[in-house]
Structures are given as structure tokens and as C-alpha cells.
Amino acid sequence: MKKGKILVTGGTGYIGAHTVVELDAAGYDVVIVDNFSNSSPDVLDGLESITGKKLTFLELDCTNPEHMELLFCKHPDIDAAIHFAAYKSVGESVDKPLEYYRNNIDSLINLLINITRRGRSGSVVFSSSCTVYGQPSPEHLPVSESAPLQPAASPYGRTKQICEDILSDSVKASEGALKVISLRYFNPIGAHPSALIGELPRGVPNYLLPFVTQAAIGIRENVCVFGDDYNTPDGSCIRDYIYICDLAKAHVKAVERILEKQDEMDGSIEYFNLGTGKGLSVLEVINRFMEATGVNVPYKIVGRRAGDIEQVWADPSKANKILGWSADTPLDVVFKSAWEWEKRIRAI
Ligand code: WQD
Question: Do 11 and 30 meet the contact criterion of CB atoms below 8 Å apart?
Fold first, then answer.
């Protein structure tokens, strides 16, 4: 007997795909939708290999109202939605703000219109980001959900703040019909242990770890470390790097809470910080990766990257306590998973 039908928008993306695996393993029926704007149909093959089944998939654009209406006509029995579908590059959002506002906000509004119009209760788990906190002040590190939000440093971060406001207002207006949990991710890294799915950066990667693995395998001369003159122990920026499979499991916990423990929810949107609770500098990432894999990673120190914050890491105690979840995969296992994935996609 299935535990419920879960819609996963952006379900062939990096976090979406890993979450599909964990939802399936937990006994949920999954409907994946994606337009492949930042992923590949090959991901569906990986998901089929891992889960051993052909999963329900519809290629559609969540910003297209007709597409979303069609989806909910075909699947009126969706019990909850996890909304990943969004553009997510901080740097790209600075260059293309209108594309980010249109895509990230329209897709959420289309989802909400359809999930609440059915005359059934609606449940949404939203993919948010620690970027809503900006650079927390020292007294707010590690950063908890009660930390003040800062003006977003990029249109990407701003879309996450706007979407959380839309969700909060929609929950209040729904008089209990809409339940929402917003998950604020720190820095997801690594790949599924099977090396059948992982982070597929198109072209130049956006995030640190793909640069590390590409420098390790030799398709990139070195990793450029964006600054070692910050006010941190080794001068490089600090982040909270969370294993992608641990992050995926948190989404299952959020779905379970929203579907099976609604009486514990107080009728307003709930926020959870998803991190390990430990900060790691860029230079520590590089050195710990080399220790874990035995592979050399050439790097050079260059100037700071515009828009970078100096240091942020999570206080995950609320998620630990209320979701019964923690990110505890050892770092060497995480780095090895990223390295195995890099070797596989380079067919070595
Ligand atoms: C990490 C650190 C860079 C590349 C992320 C994303 C998103 C969000 C969390 C969910 C920074 C340094 C990077 C490189 C480097 N989570 N770096 N050389 O900037 O924390 O942004 O925040 O939405 O995952 O928005 O991630 O991986 O780009 O950078 O030195 O070639 O690595 O300066 O200090 P970031 P990142």
C-alpha cells in the first residue's frame, strides 16, 4: 500500500532526483515533472536503475499555466508537492534577473493555484535556501530559523525570500487548507552511492565541489580559491556542506510531517535549516577532499568573488528535534561519492 502520491517539480535536477530516490524507498508514489532546463533525460535512466522501476514522468514547464492544469487533471490525487523547479545560480541571476523572477515566482504561483483549487487540502514542501539569511552577524552564527533575514545579495536569493512570503500569505489566507514547510538548504554536495545520479553542471560549474572534482580529474587546470583574506582561520570562506542524500532524506521527513502529523503544525508556514551544523572553509574542503580520495587537487588563490558572504553555517537543532533528521554522513564518504561520480561521468 503506497503512503501517498508526491509531486516532485524539478525532479530530474540535482536535489530533486536524489529526493525521488528517497521518496520511493520510503514507499511513496512519485510523479516527476521537469522541463530539463537544468538537467538531462539521462537522469530518468539513473533513477530507473536505482529504484528498479519506471517512474511517472511528465515533461512540462511549471511556469506554463496550461501545463500545470493538465498535470493536476491527470493526477488529481496528488497528496503533496515538493517544489524544486527553479533556477539556482547566484551569479547567473545577477546577469538575468527577469528570467529568475519570472521562472522562480511564476512556477510557484502556478503550483499553488492548482494545488489549492481542487477543493482538497494542499501540502507543499518548498526548496528554499540559506541565502535568505545573507551574512548573519557573529551573534547569529550558527544560524537558526529565528535569525533575521537580510536583504538578499542576489536576485536568486531574493526570489527565495519572495516565494517564502507568497507561501506564508497563502497559508494564512487558506484558513488551514494549505500546509507548507520551507526547507532552507546550506551547501549540498556529493552524489548517490551508486554513482548513477549526481550533480550535472552544464558548462562551467556554479558551485565549489564540481570545480574540485574537475580539477582532480584534470579537465580543469586548477581550482580558483576566491580569496584567502577573509576574517576566518585560514582566510577562505566558510560554508556548511551537507551530503545530498542526507538532504534528500530531510524532504521525506518533511512530507511525513505534513501528511501524517498535521495536528502538530500550528497553521502557519514552518521553516527548517538543513545543514550539518559544522562550518568548513574552501581550503579545508580541498584538503579534506585530497585526504579522502588520495587524489591531488591543484588550486590557486585569486581575488574575492563579488557577492560572496564570508561565513555561514547552520544550527540544525530544530530539524533534528522536530523532523527527527540529522545530516551525519562522514565527510570522507561524501567526498568519495563526488569523486566516484566525476569519474563515472568522464567514463574513467
Ligand atoms: C562556496 C564557497 C566561494 C567556487 C550556494 C548556492 C546554493 C545555496 C547555498 C541552496 C564560496 C568558494 C566557489 C570556486 C571558490 N543553497 N568557491 N572557488 O556561494 O555558498 O552559494 O549557497 O540554495 O547552493 O547559492 O556556493 O559552491 O558557489 O561557493 O573559492 O571555483 O566556495 O567563494 O566561498 P555558495 P558555492
Answer: yes
The residues, any chain, with a CB within 8 Å of residue 247's CB and separated by 6 or more, are: 15, 18, 185, 188, 274, 327
In b/e form, how buried is each residue of 145-159, taking b as 16+ CB within 10 angstroms? bebeebebbbbbbbb
90 lines ligand 1 (CB under 6 A): yes
**Spatial distance between the Cα atoms of 263 and 248, rounded to a whole number of angstroms:** 24
Q: What amino acid positions are annotated as catalytic residues? A: 156
| CA gap 156, 269 in Å, rounded | 21
d(CA 276, CA 5): 29
Residue 65 CB neighbour total at 10 angstroms: 14
* Cα 311 to averaged position of ligand 1 atoms, centre (Å): 11
- The string over 26-46, giving b where at least 16 C-beta atoms fall within 10 Å of a residue's C-beta and e elsewhere, is bebbbbbbbbeebbeeebbeb
Domains and CATH numbers, the chain: 5-190+242-275 (3.40.50.720)
Predicted structure pTM score: 0.96
Q: What is the pLDDT of residues 305-337, one digit of tens each?
A: 887 899 999 999 999 999 999 999 999 999 999
Which residue do the cell numbers 538543513 mark? 274
**Residue among 164, 199, 231, 305 to mutate when testing ligand 1 (max atoms within 8 A of CB):** 305
